[in-house]
Amino acid sequence: MANNQLESLNDIFTQRLFRIPDYQRGYAWEAKKQLKDFWEDIVNLPWGRSHYTGLLSIKRVPKSVWRTWVNEEWLITGKKYVPFYVVDGQQRLSTFVIFIQSIVNFIKQLPENANRDENEIDVGEYSLKEVVEKYLVEMKRNDIIKTYKFGYEDDNPSFLFLKHRILGEPNAGKIDETFYTLNLENAKNFFDENISNYYGTNKIAGIIRLFEKATQSMMFNIYEIDDDFDVFAAFETMNNRGKKLSNLELMKSRLIYLTTLFTDEQMDADERIVVRNKINDAWKEVYYQLGRNKKYPLSDDEFLRAHWILKYQFSNKRGDDYINFLLNKEFVTKNIFNTVTTKMTSVIETEVKTDIDTDDEETEQVNDIEIKSSTLTPRYIVDYVDSLKEVSKYWYITNFPQDSTEITEAEKKWLDRLNRLGMAYFRPLLVAAFLSPKSSESDRLNLFKEIERFIFIAFRMSGAYSTYNQNQVNRMVRKVYRGKLNINDVSKNIRNRIENWVHPADKFDYHPFKDKIQRHFNDGGGFYYWGALRYLLFEYEDDMVAKNGNAQKALDFFIKGKKDKVSVEHIYPQTPKNDYWKKKFEGYSEKQKLLLSSSLGNLLPLSMSVNASLQNDSFPDKKANKYDANGKLIRRGYTDGSHSETEVSKYVDWDANAILARGLKLLRFMEQRWDLQFENEEAMIDMIFIGFVRDKQQSNN
Predict the structure, then answer these.
(1) Are strands 126-127 and 122-123 parallel, antiparallel or unpaired?
(2) At 4, is the pLDDT very low, low, confident or very high (cuts 50, 70, 90)?
(3) Model confidence over 415-456: pLDDT tens digits?
(4) pLDDT band at 157; cut points 50, 70, 90
(5) Cα–Cα distance for residue pair 322/251, rounded to 1 Å
(6) Residues 656, 585 contacting (CB under 8 angstroms)
(7) Quick one: what percent of the chain has pLDDT higher than 90?
(8) Which of 30, 289, 298, 535 qualifies as a cystine partner to 396, CB 3.0-4.6 A?
(9) DSSP annotation of 689
(10) Exposure pattern of 288-324 as b/e (b: 16+ CB <10 Å)?
């Protein structure tokens, strides 16, 4: 280590260029956590005080590398800038650069600066042009070559995004976006919004003071790493002090590090470059797939674990067993050049028999033998990263099937079902099914159906533990992926593992499900709190669409968050104040009314949100459209709604008998849809907790 000292941002950006090396992760700070703290540190720092910002570990870029940097060499050789790799501290440094760019953009757009050159706009003791050139970008005299003072190595989507979407370089063309680029965009939006808001009360003097505090009062502890220091080990250690590196980020760093350890006999210079590029290319694709959906980026660690299940022999250990295997057993230094000691018998005594009589005995001394062999080859690393790249595409497809053009509409529909129902631990198996060399569409569809049935019955109805059958499924994943296990055999295995629950003595044992719903009733919600209610109601609606056509219900309704229950209505209200409801249910106790209100047959999905003030309307009013005094539709009624709503609207009245009848109808659909059978109608009525309605029917007869 060298240059252990405190420096301000103004000092740090004096005669230095910074690049994020390829083994580093992208920008990972989030608005609600790190950015909020960063902003508040600057805003609340008293003028004239210093604030310790953190460690900045840097390493000089070798001349052999920067000589190839077309856009940077003129600054390095002509203006004596020193190029550095950022080993630790890139998150903070990136944030400062984005923050300064937001201030520059804000000042430029002020009305008083509309027609002024950057040289004429003051930012404290600097002109705006000087600020840009010192911290952001400097151009050669003909303005063709732009040199960014901070950025990533060129082959990185984050650098393209940073230059064009954050720093404003025009003519970007196509930019691949990942959740790292989303973080960059969110940081820009965060600072743009807060700087504008801060200006409202503090005016331009306040904005300039923010800039001055950021560049002069926020102090870094600078460490320059010597060439003989293990920079990769430093990266893994240092980066765990801030926002913890994900396991996928650690894997990339580890693989690149390992490429530096092979001997020239194992990998020549050209091969070393090719393998390193392969790693970067694979991670570019992986992060592209994981971040394609900006609203719901996918977990990188969950993906890495899934790939481990696909690629390696499954272990049923819990926790971080997968990353312990990858980082501590498989991709480790000793496997590059293993020394294996083979034990031999120390003295082998050999009696030589000849035709000549002799009493001499020949003795041979044999030492232990050292055999040197590489168990981790360049080819093995390439195969691993190629596999990661391939799997990432189907990992995304299984999460967001509607985005895919590579799978059939039938496959999309079943994958969508599984995502709405909850995938449990089956996603690696779905990916393996797509990648299996022995896979056909019909095989996959049958597998998807069996998985969906298993999840609905075992987890959503019967209350199985979330890990039930997990080890058995995970052990099959690798065999499917490698084409050593037929998908149809997996489907049969999954069905067989649930048959004893579905058909003990040929009848479905509903008691575990009843116990689950009883707990929900104890909490005041009944079937309304059942996690799979929306799924059942959609499947019922979808079945009617298949039979009758005219799909009136949007899929989005059923994939809203679990906490959003606004679009499932209690037909008979939970708090019935209307005289209609009082009359229809006057013969039941308060407890029975609560059971009826949250019973399965009383819950109706609505194809549009209903204002809470209208939920106590009488049944005839709920069926009819509502208009305001000017004749404008303010609430659509059941008769003009989905198939489910239309079906309910055909009841003349809505009473306990109607709730029972519809509840039984939904349960009969459940029998047909998921291939299960209740013992009899009495068992079905018992399961929905309103046997007292049947008792009253029979007593009236």
Answers:
(1) antiparallel
(2) low
(3) 999 999 999 899 999 999 999 988 899 999 999 999 999 999
(4) confident
(5) 12
(6) yes
(7) 52
(8) 289
(9) T
(10) bbbbbeeeebbebebbbbbbbbbbeebeeeeeeebbe
Q: What is the dihedral of CA 399, 404, 410, 414, to 10 degrees?
A: 0
β-pair type (2-8, 146-148): unpaired
For residues 92 and 229, state if they share a domain: yes
Q: Going by DSSP bridges, is the β-strand pair 82-88/126-127 parallel, antiparallel, or unpaired?
A: unpaired
Closest CA to 156 of 126, 184, 189: 184
Asked if 553 and 459 sit in the same domain, the reply is no
- 458: which residues sit within 8 A by CB, 6+ positions away? 464, 468, 469, 498, 501
Residue ending a domain, among 238, 268, 284, is 238
Residue with tokens 């954050």: 166
User: Is the residue at 255 inside a domain?
Assistant: no
515 and 497 in one domain?
Answer: no
Q: What token pair was written down for 689? A: 């907790």
> Cα–Cα distance between 593 and 158 in angstroms, integer?
59
Beta-sheet pairing, 150-152 with 16-20: parallel
C-alpha distances out from residue 481 to 298, 407, 485, 625, Å? 22, 18, 8, 54
d(CA 49, CA 109): 30
Angle between helices 378-399 and 300-311 (to 10 degrees): 120
Residues 553 and 647 in one domain: yes
Q: Is residue 360 part of a domain?
A: no
Question: In this structure, are residues 409 and 365 in contact, taking their beta carbons and an 8 Å threshold?
Answer: no
* Contacts of the segment 104-110: beta carbons below 8 A, 24+ positions apart: 104/128, 104/131, 104/132, 104/136, 105/168, 105/192, 106/192, 106/195, 106/196, 106/199, 106/207, 107/204, 107/207, 110/204
Q: Output the six-digit token pair for 253.
A: 């760093």
How far is it, in rounded angstroms, from Cα 432 to Cα 307?
10
DSSP 419-470: HHH--TT-HHHHHHHHH-TT--HHHHHHHHHHHHHHIIIIIIIS---TTTTH
Identify the CA nearest to 363 among candidates 347, 383, 342.
347
Asked if the structure places residue 340 within a domain, the reply is: no
Spatial CA neighbour of 567 closest among 612, 521, 531: 612
Kindly list the distances between the CA atom of residue 397 and the CA atoms of 251, 322, 402, 404, 496, in Å, as whole numbers in the listed order: 23, 23, 8, 6, 28
548: number of Cβ within 10 Å:
10
Give the count of domains, the chain.
3
Q: From 461, 479, 502, give the residue that closes a domain.
A: 502
Contact predicate 192/102, CB 8 Å: yes
> Residues with Cβ < 8 Å from 363, sequence gap 6 or more?
347, 349, 350
* Beta bridge mates, 218: 51
Q: Which domain covers residue 491, as residue numbers?
A: 400-502
The DSSP secondary-structure symbol of 88 reads E
Could you tell me if residue 228 is inside a domain? yes
pLDDT band (50, 70, 90) for residue 347: very low
Instruction: Based on the fold, state whether residues 547 and 497 are members of the same structural domain.
Output: no
Q: Which residues contact 582 (CB under 8 A, 6 or more apart)?
A: 576
- State pTM to two decimals: 0.78
Give residue-wise pLDDT tens across range 107-155. 999 999 988 999 999 999 999 999 999 999 998 877 788 899 999 886 6
Tokens describing residue 680: 């009899």
pLDDT greater than 60 at residue 203? yes
At 562, list the tokens: 């679990």
Helix axes 470-481, 487-502, angle to 10 degrees: 160
339 burial (CB, 10 Å; 0-12 / 13-18 / 19+) is: exposed
